[in-house]
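Example 3.2
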Amino acid sequence: MDPSSIPAPASILPYWELGTVESIKRVPTGLMNRSWRVETDTGPYLLKLFLDVQGEQLAFQFEVLRALAGARVPVVLPVPSNHNTDSLIFDGNEFGVFPWLKDGRHRSGLSMSLERCRDLGRVLGSIHLTLSKAVPTPRQPFFQPSIPVEQAMDRVDRLLDLIDSRHGGSSFDALAERTLRMKRGLLAKLAHRRPPDIPVMSSGYLHGDLHPHNLLLDGDDRVLAVLDWDRLRVGPHSKELVRAAAFFFTHGDERGIDLKRAAEFIDGYRDIYDLGAPEIRIALHRLWWERLADNWVIEWHYMRRNQACDHLLPGQTALVKWWTANFDEVMHTLVR
C-alpha cells in the first residue's frame, strides 16, 4: 500500500465522538495493520487501519467479538462511529476506533505464576467453547496432513543451494546453513516419526494468532483483553492450544519449553473445553514435526528478501534441537 494514499488520522477522527484530540502517535508494532494512539480529553483510544481484513470479513469479526464479550471473554469492542457503524471507509481504506487499555501490558508466559498460566488456559478454552456455540461449523473431521519427508528435504536442499550460490559470510548465513543441515539429518534419521495422517475431530473458529503481543495483562497477570482477531479462521482446536503453549512458554534458547507452566496452561484449557488426551497428543506430535520440517524464517530471508524476522531463527533452531531430544518428556508432561 502506498502510504501517500492513506488519509491523515486527524482528518478521520472527527467521525467518532471521542472528545477533544490532544495528540496522535503512530504505534510502532504490528505487521498486518497500522495503528495510532489517540489521546483525548475523554481518555486514550486506538485508531486502526485494517489492511489484512476488510468488508464483510471484518464485519463478521466484530460479530464474533460481541459474542465473546457476551460470554464474558475479555475482548475489546469497537467504538461506534457517528454513523453507528463499527468501521468507516475513507478513500478505500477501512478504519476503526477502540478504547485504549492504558493499564494493560504484554508479558511472556515465563513470567507468570502457575495459577495465572492455568487461568490463561481457561481463557483460551472459553474462547473455543463460546465460538463453537455462537458461530458453529459443520461437525466433521478436519484433515490436515503433515508435510511428507521427501518434500521437507527437498525444501531444505533448495535453501542450501540458495545459500551456497550467494557465497555469503554473514552470521545469518552461517546459522541458516547449520540449521538446515541439522534438520536434514534429523529428517532422514527420524522419517519414521512423521505424524500419522489421521483427522482431527474437534475443530471450529479460532483466534488464529494467539501469542504474548496479542494479549494484554493487568498488574497481577490476569487477562485484560485478547487482541487482534484479524486471523480468525476455522481450524483444529488442539492445534491452536499447543501452538499457544509453545508461543507463551518457550525460552528461546537451549532450555526449550517450560513444561511445568505449559502443563498448567493446557490443564486450564481442559477445565473449560476438554478435547481429550489423544487429540492433544497428536497436535503436539504435529507441531514438533512442523517445527522440524518448516523453515519460514530462512525462506523469508532468501526468497522474499525480508529480514524482519531473522532474529527468530536462533530460538527456533534451539527449540527443534531441544524438543527432539526431549520428545517423550514433552508428551508425558503435557498430556496427563
